[in-house]
Write a structure and sequence with these properties.
The chain has about 140 residues and is mainly β. The chain is built from two helices and eleven strands. The strands form three sheets. It has a six-stranded mixed β-sheet with strand order 2-1-4-9-6-7. Strands 3-11-10 form a three-stranded mixed β-sheet. A two-stranded antiparallel sheet has the order 5-8. Strand 6 and strand 7 form a beta hairpin. It is globular and about 40 Å long.
Amino acid sequence: MGLILVISFVLSGSQPAFANNLALQKPVEINISLSNKEGALKFFPEQLQFLSGKRYKLILSNISPQKHYFTAKDFADAVWSQKVDAGNVEIKGAIHELELRPNTEAEWVFVPVKAGSYQLRCTIPGHTEAGMVGDLTIAG
């Protein structure tokens, strides 16, 4: 599996106080496809809404013949990321961008904590301009 994760880490000595209670909460699973087999420059779905304080697991897949980025820095700053699972690697810390190569999958578990509307896009040159964008909303 050729998955590259482009990530930023924010390390601290402890997890947020709410982390232990949320670990018991079953995450809401949401499947997101970065493109399709025909190579469409689009996220499926392209609009998502989350509730602050709920635990989510995004199951990101790229079944297209080219790599794509799942970039939503402001959204990532508005959530507490528990982990990203990619292949045999579990990554913890702040996640700002995920790169998925063709035919790969990653899971991102997080809890939204700051209400707002945030932009999602693929930052590969030409992809955003071609319409590979989305809206992520966190409701308080």
